[in-house]
Amino acid sequence: MMRNFFSIYILVAFVTVFSLFSCSNEGADPAPEDQGTMIAHYDIPDTDFQLEIYGQQAYQSGYNVMGLRVVDANKVRVEANITVNPIMYMDGGHSHGCPVDVPAVSLPAGQQAVGVFFIMPSMNGYWELNFTVEGAGVEATFTERITVIDPTDWETKYGSHFLRTTYQEESYFFSYYWKNGKPAADANTWVGVAYKAVRIMQGDHMMMTFEPVKDLEWNTISWMASMDHGAPENPMAMEMEGYAGHYEGKVNFTMTGDWQIANHVLLNGESVLTSEEVPAEGDGIDYFSGDVFYLEF
Questions:
Q1: Side-chain half-sphere exposure of 41, counting CA atoms within 13 A
Q2: For residues 52 and 49, what is the distance between their CA atoms, to the nearest angstrom?
Q3: Taking 80 as the threshold, does the pLDDT of residue 71 lie above it?
Q4: Closest alpha carbon to 151 in 264, 55, 284, 86
């Protein structure tokens, strides 16, 4: 299981373009039971409306696929435009944001899709989500403090997963998630997300923003430790058109059991991220080193 405990100490005054995301509700509203798992709901100040957030059980470090919608007092969806801006406040007085973009998934009708890439859990500080809601007679801005957990704290093992590395003295952040929610004993589609932290000076302040990473070679290997074998047909992930920094690939599990997944990511032909001590298929590569995700069906 991946474990990523780290602290980022950097002067940051503000978050730029990738920390803002705006979208709007469209389409018919399905029955509430069809919406999925609600991870949070917030009263919109000075209104009878609520903001509902659906996702994978909890806010977690790594890439979070979330669906947002606004409902009235009768839980009927209303059309609205929502902007979300996450900020992490460190105990030392520094702050930073994180990437926010559009996830490459289909969500229930009426939900606005947003991907939030929390680059660390709520350790040595706390996260806030800053919301702006406009529409249906509502115009409100409000802030909610949240807890972002490490994925290893989950009871489930099928959420998004988070890896961080340093390459040429720059910080890179990787995450991946199952496109259909959880894997099966089959060829499973996954989406990898990659961002690089970019530090720039604005006046007297150091500012951190995030850029999607293009032109990666992202490979995975599936390995079943108890049976001492892997599975074939794990093709290299390909960049997704229209989703900067997103890569779609497949990983194959031939049976139920205790599978491991190893990641091997290259940039400009050089290794950026590798996974630990998992036998690789093919000639010339014996082991990867780094983080491994253990998966059981």
A1: 12
A2: 10
A3: yes
A4: 55
Give the torsion sign (CA, 123, 262, 245, 232).
negative
State how far the Cα of 190 lies from the Cα of 11, in Å rounded to an integer.
34
- pTM, to two decimals: 0.81
Q: What is the C-alpha to C-alpha distance for residues 168 and 285, in angstroms, rounded to an integer? A: 23
Residue 72 class from Cβ within 10 Å (0-12 exposed, 13-18 middle, 19+ buried)? middle
Provide the 10 A C-beta neighbour count for residue 24.
Answer: 11
Cβ pair 159, 152 in contact under 8 A:
no
Q: DSSP class of residue 237?
A: B
Q: How far apart are CA 285 and CA 279, in angstroms?
A: 8
116 vs 101: CA distance, rounded Å? 7
**What distance in Å separates the CA atoms of residue 241 and residue 103, rounded to the nearest whole number?**
12
Of 4, 203, 198, 208, the closest CA to residue 94 belongs to 208
> Tokens 């932290």 correspond to what residue?
197
Residue 283 has pLDDT above 60, yes or no: no
Q: Which amino acid is at 34?
A: D
Backbone angles phi, psi at 33, to 5 degrees: -70, -10
Each residue's pLDDT tens digit, 233-248: 899 999 999 999 999 9
Contact 84/67 with Cβ under 8 angstroms? Answer: no
